Amino acid sequence: MHVKTDTKEKFHAITVMEPSVSATMTEEMERVLLSCLQNDPKNLVLILSEVAALDMAAAEKLVTLQQHFYEHSASFVICGLQKAVEEFLDQNELLEIMNVTPTESEAWDIVQMEEIERELLD
User: Fold this and answer.
1) Which residue, among 61, 76, 55, has the nearest Cα to 26 in the 3D structure?
2) Mind listing the pLDDT tens digit for each residue in 24-64?
């Protein structure tokens, strides 16, 4: 799986550079994304603007990974969904449980708010 990683002050921005993400790619996707939890910053913004298709196994893996990040006090925000991918997630009732924003800028805002929330709750 081809990805582009850009480390910002508070998060890693990972852009998936594939036209589709399938079940056969989930193990590698998990390895790449979980590696972010090993380094500061631990927060992740996953940019899917290049992805035109996502299969069910990959979508479910994203939900699982997002939950894993939150269990480890780190943010996981997905942004830049193409219309077809967003509709697929919505039809399969996954979109409502995922942390999704239209743009990276909005994802950055969510990461900042969640960082403040974690500081206040600790």
Assistant:
1) 61
2) 999 999 999 999 999 899 999 999 999 999 999 999 999 99
Q: Which pair of tokens denotes residue 11?
A: 């998060």
Within 10 A of 46 (CB to CB), how many other CB atoms are there?
27
- Take residue 18 and report the two structure tokens written for it: 């594939």
Which domains, ranges and CATH numbers included, belong to the chain?
A: 3-121 (3.30.750.24)
CA dist 122 and 107 (Å) reads 22
β-partners of residue 47 are: 15, 79
Cβ–Cβ under 8 Å, residues 31 and 61:
no
Using the Cα atoms of residue 106, residue 47, residue 26 and residue 75 in order, give the sign of their dihedral.
negative
> What is the value of pTM for the model shown?
0.95
The span from the CA of 36 to the CA of 84, in Å, is 27
